[in-house]
């Protein structure tokens, strides 16, 4: 179904000429697996409220495995089994392929609960789960049938920086390259990345997706190899001479479409697959940072309840104005940050549903504005974590202390390429005034 006033859009508008030489390497379609036209969800009657409640019920278990998760570089296998069984990976997946398609607001509430237990675990889960919409939005129908497979099991990072090449051959591409920071690859079933086609760089990146068995996940994450988010499963991935069929690729220029929704909104008749990703992708980074702040607040509360002041009068810290002030200020910052996320999640779905229903676009500026708002939420969360870390005393900085981990996990976000709030704010203003912008 096409929204009012919008023409149909080809599900694969970018077809690059193919070379005549046939190269047979790792061929996805050689696996003769039956691909049903539709896959039922594991729990057809599951509700958003129930899946959020499941996430909240897991917080103590998530918190308990955080140290081990840091050591091994990803959350523990038993926890991923529970995430899978709870349906977390299917929240944003098309219903046709065994998903629930509950919406961005529900997904973000689930990730927020997981992040309260451990920020790195939430980062890895989120970036393994929230790329299903990218496939549902932009990939050809044949590719979606192939990638979601016979069961609908789909866990997939997306490395957006084009660190490798896709060389055209008969029927598809030969892909080579190494991509770092592939967050969410710890339990991935697939790998998605952006590449460049040699000689056609001016056309922009080509996005490819292939089963995880076709790539090599490098052992370069966790156990203190980086200051924070050690449990996020952000390993590098190497791809060597892998054949990817044409139908498992699409143009990587997802962010510059103006008044047309992604083909997936029409294919699935669902506003969730409208194709806007600025807010969606950045929330996946910021919600874990808010979770780190919430975790720091939890630890600080335990400190106030269990420790006394150093100097007379020797009283419980929670009774002293200085400690109360730190707690109250941090809590208000965290509450405001979470409120921004909740508002953006609701606004995202409202704008997408309006686009689907009436044809009035959910604009690129709308999406970028929410991206900027979510950056403000990150600054609030980091300010809260810094305040709590500084007020918790030096014992909180010891190796193995939960407060130290929350501080480190929050700090790592600051170096992320998309965390530059000043740059994004400028680009939002340029969009508003009709000036050329350079937002990716």
A few lines on this structure:
The protein is of the alpha+beta class and 440 residues long. The chain has helices at residues 48-57, 59-64, 66-72, 77-86, 104-117, 119-129, 132-138, 141-148, 263-267, 278-306, 321-358, 364-391, 402-413, 421-432; strands at residues 158-169, 172-179, 190-196, 206-211, 216-217, 237-245, 249-251.
Q: Which terms summarize this structure?
A:
oxidoreductase activity, acting on the CH-CH group of donors; 440 residues; Butyryl-CoA Dehydrogenase, subunit A, domain 2; 14 helices; alpha+beta; flavin adenine dinucleotide binding; oxidoreductase; Butyryl-CoA Dehydrogenase, subunit A, domain 3; 2 domains; AcylCoA_DH/ox_N_sf
Report the β-strand fraction as a percent range: 5-15%
- Spatial extent as radius of gyration: 22 Å
Helix percent reads 40-55%
Task: Say what the CATH topology of the largest domain is.
Answer: Butyryl-CoA Dehydrogenase, subunit A, domain 2
User: How many strand units?
Assistant: 7
Shape: globular
* Main β sheet profile: 7 strands, mixed
CATH class of the largest domain: Mainly Beta
Report low-confidence residues grouped into runs of 5 or more.
1-33
Return the structural class: alpha+beta
H/E order of the elements? HHHHHHHHEEEEEEEHHHHHH
- Sequence of strands across the biggest β-sheet: 5-6-2-1-3-4-7
């Amino acid at each position: 179904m096409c929204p009012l006033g919008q023409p149909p859009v080809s599900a694969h508008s970018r077809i690059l000429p193919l070379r005549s030489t046939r190269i047979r390497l790792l061929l996805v379609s050689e696996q003769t697996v039956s691909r049903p036209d539709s896959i039922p969800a594991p729990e057809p009657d599951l509700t958003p409220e129930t899946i959020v409640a499941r996430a909240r019920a897991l917080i103590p278990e998530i918190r308990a495995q955080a140290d081990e998760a840091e050591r091994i570089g990803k959350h523990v296998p038993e926890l991923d089994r529970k995430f899978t069984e709870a349906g977390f990976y299917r929240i944003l997946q098309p219903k046709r392929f065994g998903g629930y398609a509950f919406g961005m607001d529900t997904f973000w509430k689930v990730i927020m609960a997981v992040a309260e237990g451990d920020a790195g675990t939430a980062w890895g889960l989120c970036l393994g789960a929230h790329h299903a919409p990218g496939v549902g939005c932009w990939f050809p129908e044949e590719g979606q049938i192939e990638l979601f497979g016979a069961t609908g099991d789909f866990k997939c990072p997306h490395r957006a920086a084009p660190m490798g090449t896709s060389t055209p051959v008969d029927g598809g591409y030969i892909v080579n390259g190494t991509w770092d920071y592939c967050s969410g690859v710890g339990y991935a079933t697939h790998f998605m990345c952006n590449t460049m086609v040699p000689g056609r760089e001016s056309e922009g990146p080509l996005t490819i997706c292939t089963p995880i068995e076709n790539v090599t996940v490098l052992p370069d994450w966790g156990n203190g190899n980086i200051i924070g988010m050690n449990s996020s499963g952000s390993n590098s991935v190497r791809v060597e001479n892998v054949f990817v069929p044409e139908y498992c690729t699409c143009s990587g220029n997802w962010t510059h479409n103006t008044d047309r929704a992604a083909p997936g909104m029409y294919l699935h008749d669902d506003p969730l697959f409208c194709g806007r990703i600025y807010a969606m992708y950045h929330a996946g980074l910021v919600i874990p940072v808010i979770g780190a702040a919430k975790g720091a607040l939890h630890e600080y509360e335990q400190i106030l309840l269990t420790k006394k002041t150093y100097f007379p009068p020797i009283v419980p810290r929670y009774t002293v104005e200085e400690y109360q002030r730190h707690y109250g200020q941090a809590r208000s910052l965290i509450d405001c940050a979470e409120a921004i996320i909740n508002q953006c999640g609701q606004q995202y779905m409202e704008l997408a549903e309006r686009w689907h229903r009436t044809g009035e676009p959910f604009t690129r500026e709308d999406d970028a504005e929410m991206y900027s708002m979510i950056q403000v939420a990150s600054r609030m969360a980091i300010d809260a974590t810094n305040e709590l870390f500084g007020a918790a005393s030096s014992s909180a900085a010891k190796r193995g202390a939960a407060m130290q981990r929350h501080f480190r996990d929050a700090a790592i976000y600051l170096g992320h390429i998309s965390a530059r709030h000043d740059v994004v704010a400028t680009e939002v203003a340029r969009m508003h005034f009709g000036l050329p912008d350079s937002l990716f």
